[in-house]
């Protein structure tokens, strides 16, 4: 996103992943990304963290059984963004391995004010802590359209389609006033 935005704000509490991210930013000479060493959640606290196992460093989570070795800082999104005078949110991507409901709860005021386009992963039997589609919708701002995002392969073509909260894993939330954006994206995907 750094190529398409004036500023990108990132949150990564797990030091090995944060170090890797910062190194990639340096290697690629990216100067418009701020990386904060915290996670976002519903309140300010230090939480047990389940460190990832294997090669996928992005699979660590605040949900589930913690291995007891790490407690990482989590801050309430609305308060942290205000205190640090962070810019308006136009687009937000949330992929926090099951902790999504906590992130959206903590960003509730800012989401309703800024009405960003949201891309989020939803997973697990409790669907990332929301439980139901109604609870998920209640965590968002009013008057939006919900889409599922699918990909044919890791480097394949993306599809924007009608969602099934019970089955799909990636969702796109678009405020009513930005509905034309989706039509343009769908048009450009169809022409490829």
Write the layout of secondary structure elements.
Layout: E1 8-11, H1 15-27, E2 33-36, E3 39-41, E4 45-48, E5 71-76, H2 77-83, E6 91-94, H3 100-106, H4 108-114, E7 117-121, H5 133-139, E8 144-151, E9 158-161, E10 170-175, H6 179-190
Parallel strand pairs: 1-2, 3-5, 6-7
Antiparallel strand pairs: 4-5, 7-10, 8-9, 8-10
Q: What does this molecule look like?
A:
The structure is a single chain. It is built from 6 helices and 10 strands, in the order E-H-E-E-E-E-H-E-H-H-E-H-E-E-E-H. With 192 residues, it is an alpha/beta fold. It has a single domain (8-190), classed as Vaccinia Virus protein VP39 (Rossmann fold). The chain has a 5-stranded mixed beta sheet with strand order 6-7-10-8-9, with helices on one face. A 3-stranded mixed beta sheet has the order 3-5-4.
The structural domain count equals 1
The whole-angstrom Rg is 17 Å
- CATH level 3 topology: Rossmann fold
Helix content, binned percent: 25-40%
CATH class: Alpha Beta
| Shape type | globular
Q: Count the helices. How many?
A: 6
- Major β-sheet annotation: 5 strands, mixed
Strand element count: 10
- Estimated structural class: alpha/beta
Mean pLDDT across residues? 89
Low-confidence stretches: none
**Helix-strand pattern, N to C?**
EHEEEEHEHHEHEEEH
Report the sheet-strand fraction: 25-35%
- End-to-end Cα distance: 21 Å
């Amino acid at each position: 996103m750094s190529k398409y935005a004036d500023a990108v704000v990132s949150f990564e509490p797990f030091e090995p992943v944060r170090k890797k991210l910062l190194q990639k930013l340096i290697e690629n000479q990216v100067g418009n990304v701020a990386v904060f060493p915290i996670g976002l959640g519903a309140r300010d606290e230090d939480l047990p963290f389940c460190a990832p196992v294997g090669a996928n460093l992005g699979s660590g989570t605040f949900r589930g059984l913690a291995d007891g070795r790490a407690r990482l800082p989590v801050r309430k999104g609305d308060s942290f963004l205000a205190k640090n005078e962070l810019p308006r949110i136009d687009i937000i991507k949330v992929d926090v391995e099951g902790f999504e409901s906590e992130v959206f709860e903590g960003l509730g005021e800012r989401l309703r004010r800024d009405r960003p386009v949201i891309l989020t992963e939803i997973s697990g039997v409790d669907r990332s802590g929301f439980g139901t589609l109604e609870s998920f919708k209640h965590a968002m701002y009013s008057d939006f359209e919900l889409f599922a995002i699918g990909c044919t392969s890791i480097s394949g073509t993306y599809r924007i389609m009608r969602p099934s909260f019970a089955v799909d894993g990636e969702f796109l939330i678009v405020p009513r006033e930005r509905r034309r954006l989706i039509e343009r994206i769908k048009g450009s995907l169809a022409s490829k």
